[in-house]
Amino acid sequence: MIDRFRISKQWMLRIAERGLSLEMLQRKAGLPELFFQQDKIYASTAELFSLWSTISDHCGDVAFGLTLGADMRLERNHPMAIAAVCSSCLRDALQRLARYKRVVCPEEIRVEVNGDEVIIGSHYLATSEQPPHIMTDMGFSWMTAMARHSSDGHIRPLRLELTRGPEHRALLEGHFGCPITFNASRNALVFRSSDLDFPFYTHNEELLAVIAPQLDAELQEHDQNTRITYAVKQVLKRTLAGRRPTLQSLAKELAMSTRTLQRRLTDEGITFQQLVEETRRELARSYLQTGAIEPNETAYLLGYEDSNSFYRAFNGWEGVSPGEWLELQRRVARGAVEYGSGRGAFEA
Prior knowledge:
The protein is of the alpha+beta class. The chain contains 16 helices and 7 strands.
């Protein structure tokens, strides 16, 4: 599993609204420079835990996670959360959450029916460490609010189990409205199993029909991006310049053994050398089309020893030299413009 996932910018805006500086959080949490300035913010599980631990340390409010989780305004929530609210019942909502959760977090929602109880827990796929308390508070608070809101107050937790001590018992029991078992072996939210099929008053098939395709597309993109071939290409694009890549160096960058990387590539039906060549070809096309880099510089950035090696490789990919290929692209572009102009005149 590739430990890299996308963080919703909506959460970061909500944090900033509470007066916390994102620049300060980035620095204190040890996150990469310009972390919050990315068009799409990606993080590892360790970075996510560090970020929320820092938020907890600097927010000055032990109820911060509870408050964030209890905000049920649709415009404040990810489409995944809106889909849960629009579900037909709690069972349907939990199934949607379990399906789409990995789009926004490397977390697996686990639902166990045991007699009269339905036990909801979570498991972080890339670590055995427990998440910061603020993350647990936020997740269980949101799930409780979602169930209450959608059932018009009918569904309420039967019990909450937390691995932490009872320092804030009154606050937590007041918020969740149920008994809490502290120093438990797991973090779990427990409802009555009879609540699973209680109809949601917020059920909205029309809105689900709009949201579900978007979520499915995000899930497909996520699954594509977590394939090992995608991860290897991303590392290669960062590290090719002036270097001859090896399977060993890539395995180290991906924090896995060479043997594991080799097996994963074999499972996806591709060799390491094929990936290197595909990445070089993609980058070469990009560099040539921008026109900002000379052929000798392109050779260096692609990890070739000299420009002749690059020219031979490029000719093997495209059947022409880099210059001929670029001129062909320009002709195609001009032809497309001329064709578009002519078609417009004809249709007018």
